[in-house]
Structures are given as structure tokens and as C-alpha cells.
Amino acid sequence: KRKMLTFVVAGAGFTGIETAGELMEWTKSLCDKYHLDHNDVKIMVIEALNTILPNLNAKLANKAAKFLAKKGVEVLTNAPIVEVAKDYIVLKDGRKIETKTLIWTCGVQGNKCVENFGLELGRRSRVQTNEYMQAVGKENIYVIGDLAYYELDGKPIPQIVETALQSAETVVHNIVADIKGGEKQPFKPKYHGFMVSIGSRYAVAELMGVSLTGFLAMAMKHLVNMHYLFGVAGFNAVLSYIYHEFFEIKNNRSILGGHIAAHIPIFWLVLLRIYVGALWLIEGINKIQQGWLDPTKIFIITTSDVSGATAKAGEAATAAQTLQPLLKEPPAFYKWFMDTFVAPHAFLFQAMVVLAEVAIGLALIAGLFTVLASAGSIFLALNFILSAMADKSILWYIFAAIALMGGAGRAFGLDYYVIPWIKNWWKKTSFARKTYLYIS
User: Fold this and answer.
1) pTM above the 0.90 mark?
2) 371 φψ region: left (φ > 0), alpha (ψ -120 to 50), beta (else)
């Protein structure tokens, strides 16, 4: 049992530390699931060098080591592994560590098949290239990413994402230059820094000379991930990433914990949805009965005469006419908008308000396009507040609509059928496929 619950990560570079962080974070939930004592699990990181994360500055590396130690991960440095057996490993100093699981992260090397191509190889069977990322001696072969071996200032280019992307850009340019007879450009990488996440809520980062730890470092890592995802797969990939990392994450594995990943059954919102819809529908019907669709009767506020307009609006008010409005008078910018755009077309805007109330009411009652209907509810409520026509009772329309935007139409509503159909139709359109503007 002790061997099976001892997990050894060989190598304390980016991959090794991030792997240890994942093991560390999953320990509690997996132990709870399989009824194991957390204290029986042992996670070790073994590094041959005298420090972890050698590409980072010493201060950040030490903070990472302290965080791992705080979380119960044992870190051994200056400890090369000299023997690996089925049930144990042996360190250079003779220590024997019994384990059933060894995760090797001590660097990668080129595939052995490369040796059969007759190419000049650098360290770890990586293909030696010149400054144009051409294989040495084979100028019709270009090499990018981890497989390329090229030294700058006496150091091999790092095997990281930025190297892969920037070397690919150089190679694309040079291939076009070969075809069109242009001038090749040498590979001159510009690295913005390094980031290492240790679990899902802690990270260390060195970005353009600035050291970050904890929340800020993890937030930057998410932003960088989304930047790369957008470049590869557009909006859909970014939205899917946000949903997965924040709204659908399990076991509180987010820098925001599990707060925005908490869910309640949507059917609890059904009665609220229908009630809010009924109120809007009744309000719209009342306005129709009062004559709001009659071009000869103008009830909408005209802010050039606020007091008179408010009085006229009061005649059309229904239940809350004696309550104090939230605003004594409309703000200056709203007066300007009303005088400039609404007053010349008063009946048009008046009819739009009535029809919007009826449409929002019917949509919410039916559970159709609930997100749009809820957004419309918020918009109308804010307009009534800014026009100095609404008292504090209208605020609950806004907060109820916010709650309904969580997909309230998916339970006992038409959204249950309509939204999946629209998604499937949209994903098949050529525009969505070309732009990646769709949701999985």
C-alpha cells in the first residue's frame, strides 16, 4: 500500500512542478472518493540539479519550493536517479525509494527515427539547424519547435510554446522566400517570460522582468492561455476555456474557488420566470388599454418639460403612482437623448415600449430566448429609472432578470428545444465554421 501511494515525479522543471501540483491538488478529492487516509499519500519531486525551476530567478524558485513543502510535497534536489526498477528507484547517494509510480519529466529528445534521415543532430537527438531554421546540410528541410536544436548566445533555444510559435513564423516566411526568391530572415526569438502553475490556484511567473506569484500569476496564466487559444481556434475555444476553468470546474479548482461554479437546478426559477413575464405582459396590456398605441395620445416623457411630463406619466401609472421615484428628475444626458431622439418620434418610441413589454412578457412566460428577454427586462427597467418614472419596486425586476439569465428557459420552457436546435444549425453554417464563432 505504501508503494502504491507513493508518487515520484522525476525532474523539477516546468512539467515536473506542474505535474506535482496537479497530484497535490487531486489527492484530497481522490482520497475521499476511494476512502483513503490523506496522510498515507506521499508525493515527491526529485531533481538532479541544486534547484527547482532553473529557468526562473532564485526568488521565484524558492517561493515555489516553499509552497510545495507547505502542501506536503517532498522536494529533493542534488539527487540524480541512477536506477529505476519495477518497485523502487535508487538515487546517486544510495537512497532507495519504494514506489509503484514514477513520472519521468526530465526533458525530451527527438524521435529515434530522425537518426535514419541522415541529418546532423544536436543534443538529445534534436535536429541541428542554422539561423534560418534549416537542417544543417539539408537546406530544403526546415525544423520548428522542440525538435529543433539551435544555440543563441551559447545556449540552446528552450523547448517552450513561444519557441514553437516564433520558429514556425520564421519558417513560413523563409519558405515563401524560397518560392518567391525573397530574402530569408533569421530566427530571433523574443521571449516574454515564463509561467508555472502549481495546482489551479497558485502560480509563479516572470513576465518581461516582473515577478508575480499567487493570484496575479495565475490570472496572467489564464490570460495567456486564452490569447493562444484565440489565435488557434478563435472565440469558441476561449469561451469553452472560460466555462471549463471557471463555471464548470469541480472541487474548487479555480483561482476564484468554487463560487461561480456553484449550480442550482434551473427548475427552481420556473415560477419566478413566469411571474416576471406575467407582470410585464399585464403592464403592456394596461398601456394598450390606456391608449399607448393611439398616435393621438402621447404618454411618454418629454424632458423639456419634466414636471408636466411627469404629471402626464402619472396619469398612466398603474399601482405605484403614490410611491417616491428613485430619481427626482432625469439626468442631463438622458434629457438630451430624449429631446434629441425621442421627442421628434414620440409615438414610435411609445409604441416600441408597449410592444417590448408584451414581447418580454410572452417570451418569459413561454421560456423562449430567456436570456434576451431578461436583458430586455433590465434595459426597460433602467430606462424607467432614468426617466424618473419608477420607484424602488422596479429594482427587483432587474435582480430577478439577472437570476433568470442563468438559463431559466431550459426547464419547462421552449429554450429546452429551441436553443439546442439553433446551436446545431449555427455550427453547420460556413460562416461559423470559418470564424469559429460558435459554442460547443
Assistant:
1) no
2) alpha
